[in-house]
Amino acid sequence: MKNNLMTEHFEPMVIKDFTPMAGTTQWESPSNIALVKYWGKMGNQIPRNPSVSFTLQNCVTRTQIDWFEKKGNSSELDFYFEGKLKPSFGQRIQKLIATIAEQNTVLNQYSFRISSTNTFPHSSGIASSASAMSACAAGIIDMLRQIREAQDSNPWDEDYFKQQISFYSRLGSGSACRSIYPNAALWGEVSPDLGSNLWATPLDHLLHDDFRQYQDAIVIVDDSTKSVSSTMGHGLMNQHVFSKIRFEEGLRNTETMLNILRTGDISSFIDIVEREALQLHAMMMTSNPSYILIKPNTLAIIEKIRQYRQDSNVPLCFTLDAGPNVHILYPFAFRDKVKEFIETEIIELNPKMNWIADEMGLGTKQI
Q1: For residue 35, what pLDDT band results from cuts at 50, 70 and 90?
Q2: What is the distance between the alpha carbons of residues 68 and 82, in angstroms, rounded to a whole number?
Q3: What's the CA gap between 75 and 113, in Å, rounded?
Q4: What is the pLDDT of residue 15?
Q5: Residue-wise pLDDT tens digits, 284-328
């Protein structure tokens, strides 16, 4: 399959003598933290530069999808988050289902009730759209699998199944495609033979032992809804004065990061991860209009991390998503030391701040 969304797609599922069947499925999908950032897109969720991420374990969205035959003027979709009806996000899910239905028209015969919960704050810059959209896409693709296997007992190839989820997740939220796979993933074309713009590529097989069980302590500087959406931020890159330089840098850093993950070069890992985080926010601060998502305590935490690394030789580093919250990445062996550092030096900046102990995870799964 070539990287051309206009001419290539997954083959539609063929249903013979179809009788609508009610059903349900439950899926859990994690957030992910980008090491090399995707910021700027073209066309239908095509990244302007490739990205690399660690898949998380504890920051997850859990989603149940119930489907039933559409009758009369019944609602096509009701979406509930934390038990409350959320029509606005439901519209995003409806759009995703409509996109999947373009190739799988059987979906047009159903109405849906979708219920989701998060284990972490949503819309605050911890990639909650990635976990939400990947969980929903997994449920819809599993629905199609159930319908198909009710007529044909031959199971779907698991790799193909995951690739479909990644493909359609991307259309709901670009970075969602990376949440499907365990531990680490690449999204975007690095070369004609490496990576795809249409789905993520698993990287677990190439990870050096030093990058296994990597930890992510997420300090919640501010859990309120961020003032500028990621969609708007990506759009501002289209006319950004530094966009060409940034996209080229993102490609170079992806190539370097893939080699770092193979070789276990933690010093170079720290350098690229921190530069990528700061470049992401530099693009926001120099766009037109410009905006600032980091907070004073974001900067204070960064200063403390760098000072602690220098004083202790503990190889921790920071990264940021599109928000003020700080991800502290470090090897498993230093977990106790970093926990003490967070509780004695970071939280003292504001005792009301919370933090989430997270780590590499196994990706999207059925529950």
Answers
A1: very high
A2: 22
A3: 9
A4: 58
A5: 999 999 999 999 999 999 999 999 999 999 999 999 999 999 999
**What single-letter amino acid sits at 274?**
E
Q: How far apart are CA 19 and CA 27, in angstroms?
A: 25
Q: Residue-wise over 62-98: b if at least 16 C-beta within 10 A, else e?
A: bbbbbbbebeeeeeebbbbbeeeebeebbebbbebbe
Q: Is the dihedral of CA 132, 134, 140, 145 positive or negative?
A: negative
Name the pLDDT band for 5 (thresholds 50, 70, 90): very low
Q: Report helix angle 266-285 to 243-263, nearest 10.
A: 160
Q: Quote the pLDDT of residue 18.
A: 62
Task: Describe the crossing of helices 158-172 and 128-151 by its angle, rounded to 10 degrees.
Answer: 140
| Cα 289–Cα 295–Cα 301 angle in degrees, nearest 5 | 135
Rg (CA), the chain: 21
Which tokens sit at 290?
């410009």
- 231 has a pLDDT exceeding 80: yes
159 burial via Cβ count (<10 Å: 0-12, 13-18, 19+):
exposed
3-state secondary structure of 186: strand
Of the given ranges (29-43, 106-120, 153-167), which has the lowest mean pLDDT?
A: 153-167
- Spatial neighbors of 164 by CB under 8 A, at least 6 apart, are 10, 141
CB 6 within 8 A of CB 138: no
Give residues with Cβ within 8 angstroms of 340, minimum separation 6: none
Question: Look-up: residue for tokens 């990635």?
Answer: 130
Mean pLDDT of 82-97: 92
- Please name the residues in contact with 76: beta carbons below 8 A apart, sequence gap of 6 or more: 70, 94, 111, 112
- Six-digit token string for 31: 């957030």
- Contact of 220 with 355, CB cutoff 8 Å: yes
The answer to whether the CB of 12 falls within 8 A of the CB of 103 is: yes
Tens of pLDDT, residue by residue over 324-344, are 999 999 999 999 999 999 999
